[in-house]
Design a protein that fits this description.
Layout lengths: L4 H12 L5 H25 L3 H8 L7 H31 L1 H20 L4 H15 L1 H13 L2 H32 L2 H22 L10 H7 L24 H21 L2 H9 L6 H6 L14 H8 L1 H16 L6 H24 L17 H14 L2 H33 L4 H30 L1 H32 L11
Helix pairs in contact: 2-7, 2-8, 2-9, 4-5, 4-6, 4-7, 4-19, 5-6, 5-7, 5-9, 7-8, 7-19, 8-9, 8-15, 8-16, 8-18, 11-17, 11-18, 11-19, 11-20, 12-17, 15-18, 16-18, 17-18, 17-20, 18-19, 19-20
Length: 505
Amino acid sequence: MTTEETPLLQNSHDAVYDRFPSGRKKVLVFIVSLGALVTFFTSGTFIPTIPQIVEELDSTKEVIRPYQRRSYAVGVYMLANAVGSLVAARYSSFYGRRPIYLWWFPVMIIGSIGVANAQSVMSLMVWRFIQAAGSSPGLSVGAGVIGDIYKLEERGTALGIYLCTSLLGYALAPTIGGVMAYYWSWRAIHVSIAAFCCAVLVSIVFFFPETIHPGTKGLDRCERSGRVPSKVWPVMLNPLEQLALLRSPNILVAAFLNYTGMLTDFALLVPLPYTIVRITRVPRTYQPLITLQPPHSRVNATELRTKRCWERAFSLLDWAKQVNVLFLHKQGAPITHIDPVGAPLAGWISDKVVVKYKKKRGYWYPEDRLRASMFSCYLPLCVLGSALITKYVPGRLGLTLNLICLFLNGVGCDIALTPYGTYVVDILHSKSAEVTAAVNTFRMIAVAGSTAVMLPMIDAYGYLFTSFVVAMVATAGLGLTIVMIAHGEAMRRWMDVGFSTAENN
């Protein structure tokens, strides 16, 4: 190919990203971010309201049963999100991004109304599954939209902002959910979610055009080949097909790194009541009672064995405040905005790294973006440090030091995840939604399995040993990042699943 033709092809490809002006792109990012915000907000508001749900729907069960209900409800939500994300991503490449949002948000609205009106645990689980499935495009299709409208050198910053806005869902969920559940009801939360989804759906109808590149939809290819799909029934596609992308070592390592980043997050968050109990020296025997009762609940006298336990129970509001402080700092809530800061910062850094090394090398090397994730190399120390502090440093000093660990882990987790999320979109640009869904599915299944064994492992071997294991897994992820940066091109040659090139990215 001559040198005169190369700039022409490059300019022709760049024109695809110039379809929308800068201001319009920001509006599109804002809309898809709202979709992801709903996903995270819906997940984050459920856990703080579990005591109220248990009291209303399952009040005759013994104290230990709420933990099991919590596992089922959270597991159902994660399963539905994983399945829904795969389905939405697969069909978004065939029909386009806009139709998926128009189909899925009504499902989310119906599911939220169903959850708000649930009268039994079983009906709650069913509607919770529908609600989660309806919110799932925010996890995969949103990343595909950003890959559609932003060039390689701008994509990291845009995805960082997208993740930043999305994380506000987790940031706001404990505060808003707790306040609404306290003054109104847990049902009011889901009615509000349905109303918010209606507003987002209206914005999609009027302000969200199709973003997928012209002529690249599966529907377009069918029409060019002379096959006209039915306009009544959707084409039957296999959503599990995109999981085959994980056979690529690069995609599998990216998924594993997403998992290890989230694992450090959950390693600090899941045993949070245990951590507070150890720091404040509350007898562990009474931990389930203390952590499951809301501030305004009455405590059954038969479950309190000594007068000292009564005194502990009546000081429940103070404990709730301490738990809420940890949630606020961990999730980047209005006090500090910790987590959302890390995502756009990491995205911006990764773009700068790509531009710098592309200029230095004279060609695009996708794994250069992963250099930005190395700034999160301290994550294992946060997990291990929190465990050591919990074991050896009591009182306010221990609580303060744990907050510092939570702060650093929140920022580091985003610094680790954002470059990898952008990386998989870079190397499989034509399948950006599908590869994002595959990576997210791997992460959710792995995290669900890990969190299921985390508390039993703490009971059997102790919090310090469990944290050490998590830290070692995170360290292994750091090592794989170094391997990817050094040998990414060779790994892509081992299993080519249709990787993008500089000419088509």
